[in-house]
Amino acid sequence: MKKLLALAAAAAGAAWVYQRSRADRAEADLWAEATDSLGQEPDRRR
């Protein structure tokens, strides 16, 4: 029973780390997109 509980805890921890890394990557991509256009012509189609 202890092994099963340890396995469940490890799986929950791995899922949390995976979700956190995806969220951090999404935020990094958003910042990269927001700051990549520095020094370029502004979009005048609006």
Summed up:
This protein is an all-alpha fold and 46 residues long. Helix content is 74%, strand content 0%.
Question: Could you describe the 3D structure shown?
Answer:
With 46 residues, the protein is mainly α. The chain has one helix and no strands. The longest helix has 34 residues, at 2-35. The protein is rod-shaped, with a radius of gyration of 20 Å. The model has no long low-confidence stretch (mean pLDDT 88).
Keywords:
mainly alpha; rod-shaped; single chain; 46 residues
Write the layout of secondary structure elements.
Elements (H helix, E strand, L loop, with lengths): L1 H34 L11
Main beta sheet strand tally, sense and closure: none
Instruction: Give the rounded overall mean pLDDT.
Output: 88
Write down the overall geometry: rod-shaped
Strand content: under 5%
